[in-house]
Design goal:
Blueprint lengths: L3 H10 L3 H9 L2 H4 L3 H14 L2 H14 L4 H13 L3 H14 L4 H13 L2 H10 L13 H11 L2 H11 L26 H15 L3 H12 L5 H11 L16 H6 L8 E13 L4 E7 L9 E7 L13 E10 L2 E10 L6
Parallel strand pairs: 3-5
Antiparallel strand pairs: 1-2, 1-4, 2-3, 4-5
Helix pairs in contact: 1-2, 1-4, 2-4, 4-5, 5-6, 6-7, 7-8, 10-11, 12-13, 13-14
Length: 347
C-alpha cells in the first residue's frame, strides 16, 4: 500500500491537486514534522494557486531542512507571483551557492533576468506560464496510458515509458572515486589503516557521509602515509552537508566527548535547552544543554555558533534540536550550527 505522500505525488502528476491536499491533510498528525510531507503539501498548494497555504508549508519544511534546491525553487516562485523579483533572484543565487550546477536555478535566473518585469510576471500568473518556475511534477500518467493504448505498440510503449517517466527528486549517482581507490603505493600502510579508509569509501557509496567522515578521521589521526592522508582529505571534499531528515549516522554527546578527534567535522543532531543566548545582526550563539530538554538529565554543555540567523529564531523557554558540525575551541567541543528546530508542541 502506498504512503500518503506517494499517493499525493501520484495525484499531483495527474493534476488532481485538491485530491492530493485532501490525502495529505488527513495524515497531518502522522507526518507533521516530516520534510517530505510539508514540502509535498506546499507544492500541491502552490500548483493549486493557494500561495498563502503553500508558504506556510514551505516554512515548516525549511525548519527541518534549510538547503533543499526544490524547496528554494518553490519559495522563489512564490516571490515571483507577488512581483518581488529581487527576492526570487536571491533564492536562485542561494541554490547556486550550494549547488553550482543546478540547471533549474540557472534557467529560472536567466528567464527572470531576461523577461521578469512586473507586467510580464502578471501575465505569466494569469495564463499559467508561471508554472515553468515550479519544480516539475512529471508527465501525467493518465496521458501516458492513453498514448500507449492508442499506439498499440509494445516497443513504442517501452520507449515512451523510458522517455517520459516522471522525474523524481532523488540525487544522481555519487561521484566516481576510482582515483581514490588504494593503489600499490599504499601497500606500506598498516592493515587497520587501510581497512578504515576502505570503510570510508564504502560508507560514501552508501550515502553515509557522516560515518565516512569518522573513518577519514581515523586515517588522519593515524600513522598513515602522506599519500593516503591526501586521499582521505580529497574524499572529504565530496561529502554533503545533511539535513535533519537525511542524517543517517548520528553520534551521541558521550561518544564525541570521549574521542573528540574521531568526530571532528562530523554532524550531530542533539536535543536540549538553550542558555546564554547571544544574537547579532547576522549571527546567533548559545550554550546547548545537551540532554536537558526535559529538565532532568544534563549530558554536557556545548557552545553553538550560527553564522546566520535561523528563520524562526530561538525560544530559550522551549526544547531545541540542533544540527551542527563538530569542532573544538581549545579543548572544548563546539558546534558550527547548520539548522535548529523547535516544535510547537513539547518533545
Amino acid at each position: 500500500m502506498k504512503s500518503a505522500i506517494d499517493q499525493a505525488r501520484y495525484l499531483m502528476r495527474s493534476r488532481d491537486f485538491a485530491g492530493a491536499i485532501q490525502v495529505l491533510n488527513e495524515k497531518r498528525g502522522v507526518y507533521e514534522e516530516s520534510f517530505d510531507y510539508n514540502y509535498t503539501l506546499g507544492l500541491a498548494f502552490l500548483y493549486a494557486g493557494d500561495t498563502g497555504s503553500a508558504a506556510g508549508s514551505f516554512e515548516a519544511a525549511r525548519k527541518i531542512k534549510i538547503n533543499d534546491a526544490n524547496l528554494l525553487l518553490c519559495q522563489a516562485a512564490i516571490h515571483l507571483r507577488r512581483g518581488n523579483t529581487e527576492r526570487a533572484v536571491q533564492y536562485y543565487l542561494d541554490i547556486l551557492d550550494f549547488d553550482p550546477q543546478n540547471i533549474d536555478a540557472k534557467r529560472c535566473l536567466e528567464l527572470v533576468r531576461s523577461h521578469g518585469d512586473y507586467e510580464e510576471i502578471c501575465r505569466w500568473v494569469d495564463d499559467g506560464r508561471i508554472e515553468a518556475y515550479y519544480p516539475p511534477l512529471g508527465v501525467n500518467p493518465k496521458k501516458v496510458r492513453n498514448i500507449a493504448a492508442a499506439l498499440l505498440c509494445g516497443a513504442l510503449v517501452g520507449f515512451l515509458a523510458v522517455q517520459f517517466w516522471p522525474r523524481n527528486f532523488a540525487k544522481s549517482d555519487r561521484a566516481d572515486l576510482s582515483s581514490l581507490v588504494l593503489s600499490i603505493d599504499d601497500s606500506g600502510n598498516a592493515r587497520g589503516i587501510k581497512k578504515a579508509y576502505n570503510q570510508a569509501l564504502e560508507y560514501f557509496e552508501q550515502r553515509r557521509d557522516n560515518a565516512a567522515q569518522r573513518e577519514v578521521n581515523r586515517v588522519l589521526n593515524s600513522a598513515a602515509s602522506t599519500g593516503l592522508k591526501q586521499k582521505a582529505r580529497s574524499l572529504m571534499s565530496y561529502f554533503e552537508a545533511p539535513g535533519f531528515d537525511s542524517l543517517k549516522d548520528n553520534f551521541s554527546y558521550k561518544e564525541v566527548a570521549e574521542q573528540t578527534s574521531l568526530y571532528l567535522d562530523c554532524y550531530v543532531d542533539w536535543l536540549g535547552r538553550a542558555s546564554n543566548v547571544d544574537q547579532g545582526d547576522n549571527s546567533l550563539s548559545f550554550d546547548l544543554l545537551v540532554g536537558y530538554e526535559d529538565l532532568k538529565d544534563l549530558e554536557g554543555i556545548v557552545r553553538v555558533y550560527f553564522d546566520f540567523l535561523p528563520e524562526r529564531g530561538l525560544d530559550s523557554e522551549k526544547p531545541v534540536r540542533v544540527l551542527g558540525k563538530v569542532d573544538v575551541d581549545g579543548k572544548k567541543i563546539i558546534l558550527k550550527g547548520r539548522s535548529l528546530y523547535q516544535s510547537v508542541k513539547d518533545f
